Amino acid sequence: MKIYETLDMFHFHFDDAEEYDKMWRVFGSPLETVIRIEKQQGFLEKEKDKFTKQMENNKKDFNVQINGLEGKTTEFRAFSDIENFEEIAA
Q1: Which residue in 37, 84, 85, 86 has the fewest CB atoms around it within 10 Å?
Q2: CA-to-CA distance for 38 and 45, rounded, in angstroms?
């Protein structure tokens, strides 16, 4: 923008309309960048919520599996008493 300010100070006129449009695109680009960031931030928040819910569901499934394994290991504990091997075998 400083280059465009300097050109404006010397009353330079662009021959090509495209060059003139570039100045305004440069001038407006910070706002455009902020708008894009806000839009992306909204998308990222939705994705974060989606992944958080997915992790919570996976955590519930994991806890169910852990509880199942805990029950099986508790059943095996009954077979650890060597003195009751005849009962266990029966």
Answers
A1: 86
A2: 10
33's CB contacts (< 8 A; 6+ apart) are none
pLDDT digits (tens, 9 = 90+) for 39-80: 999 999 999 999 999 999 999 999 999 999 998 888 877 777
What pLDDT digit, counting tens, does each position of 16-46 carry?
777 667 767 777 778 888 899 999 999 999 9
- Residue-number span of the structural domain to which 30 is assigned: 2-89
CA atoms within 13 A on the CB side of 12: 13
Token representation of residue 88: 């266990």
Tally of domains in the chain: 1
User: Considering only CA atoms, which of 9, 25, 27 is closest in space to residue 17?
Assistant: 25
